[in-house]
Design brief:
mainly beta; Trefoil (Acidic Fibroblast Growth Factor, subunit A); Proaerolysin, Chain A, domain 3; 2 domains; nine-stranded mixed sheet; four-stranded antiparallel sheet; 3 helices; elongated
């Protein structure tokens, strides 16, 4: 009960600084707010798509609204609406900021609302940093509104719950006086500009997509084997030969072995966010040499040096190899030789680092890679009578 009263008091204090229409024309850059500059550590495959977007301008789109999809501020005032497009004003662009103190995610307006910084607030707090944040509407508990927040204040937070097909549910977070029961932000109808909170999460009106603004380029790519990935080696005897030394001295067997194999590569869409990535990006598929004894869970797998594959597409390539070598054969000895092709087949998690074209900020996304990739080409010699392995030679 005490915590609830404290939460109500905090919200009441914040409401005192709610946005006024008679304000300045500018909003501070959210990147200047120190408290939002946080990232989590740990396995790269465990990254949270929402936290990765910290400080990246995004559009927040309603899935079920057929006419007005874009979460938007108005030119001034506190009202939040759904708009039909990103009009370039900044009012449909948001920055997600992870908050440690109340374990949630703040949603901050990039710019475009003339009432964000008010003279009243500036008189109370000298040289303040003020910015717009999504928050509770105390007068209308089923609604949200845009709040003027002063630098250093505790921001209202929301919970992002992932569902299928890169969609999210957005609910009130810790500290909201209305968070005791879970309700979801949604469009009022398939054509309305208004939003409300409702406990029905099944409708598309309660589902949202997070789309980083602009076009991005790939700056790094890693593969990781996670607990849900299956990536195993297969061995195929692709060629064989046999040689008998009928001489009285050691003879040299000059062998020639050939193989042909097909590598395949398939990249899924990124998980959690829908992002536009510039085409024609050349990458390497996973590079695993020999057996998989070192390929444990959460172990990073490097790219092949031959970066002739295109990120984000499905492709296959057939390769033919012929290798020669020499093996000393003792007098009267017969040796059987098998050419063994080792391929890896299955899926890995890929983690791509993206950078907005013309900018320096980066963030990471993940998805699934599946396919077949070459590992090694080996020659193995046997005693044909006993079947005992005599030697192994790596051809490549």
């Amino acid at each position: 009960m005490l915590m609830k009263k404290i939460s109500l008091l905090l919200v009441g204090v914040l409401a005192l600084f709610s946005c006024e229409q008679e304000g300045l024309d500018n909003i501070m850059e959210i990147s200047d707010v120190e408290q939002v500059k946080t990232r989590t550590a740990g396995s790269i495959a465990d990254l949270d798509p929402i936290i990765e977007l910290d400080g990246i301008p995004v559009n927040i789109l309603n899935v079920g609204n057929t006419k007005r999809k874009y979460l938007s501020s108005e030119k001034s005032g506190t009202k939040l609406v759904l708009n039909s497009q990103d009009d370039g004003s900044g009012r449909q662009r948001w920055k997600i900021a992870r908050q440690q103190i109340n374990a949630g995610t703040a949603i901050l307006l990039e710019k475009g609302n003339s009432g964000i910084v008010s003279n009243k607030v500036a008189a109370i707090f000298p040289d303040p940093y003020n910015y717009g944040s999504l928050g509770d509407n105390i007068e209308k508990p089923t609604n949200i509104k845009l709040l003027c927040m002063v630098s250093g204040s505790i921001l209202p937070v929301f919970n992002f719950t992932p569902i299928a097909d890169n969609k999210w549910l957005i609910s009130r977070g810790y500290g909201s006086p209305f968070s005791l029961s879970t309700t979801y932000l949604r469009s009022k109808s398939s054509t309305s500009s208004d939003m409300t909170f409702n406990d029905d999460s099944s409708t598309d009106l309660s589902k949202w997509q997070i789309v980083p603004v602009g076009e991005y380029e790939l700056v790094d790519l890693e593969y990781v084997r996670t607990t849900v990935d299956s990536f195993e080696p297969t061995e195929v005897i692709c060629d064989h030969d046999e040689y008998t030394n009928e001489h009285l001295s050691v003879d040299t067997w000059n062998y020639s072995l050939s193989t042909s194999y097909t590598e395949e590569s398939n990249f899924s869409k990124t998980e959690g966010v829908s992002v536009t990535i510039s085409g024609g990006l050349s990458v390497g598929i996973p590079n695993v040499l020999g057996d998989d004894s070192s390929l444990g869970v959460n172990v990073s797998v490097q790219q092949q040096t031959n970066k002739s594959w295109t990120y984000g597409t499905s492709d296959s390539k057939t390769v033919t190899k012929t290798r020669t070598g020499q093996i000393p054969i003792q007098p009267g000895e017969t040796v059987k030789l098998d050419a063994v092709l080792i391929m890896y087949k299955g899926s890995l998690t890929y983690v791509a680092t993206l950078r907005k074209i013309g900018d320096t900020k980066t963030f990471r996304v993940k998805g699934k890679w599946s396919g077949d990739c070459f590992s090694s080409f080996e020659a193995r010699t046997y005693n044909p009578t006993t079947g005992k392995l005599v030697g192994e030679y790596v051809l490549e």
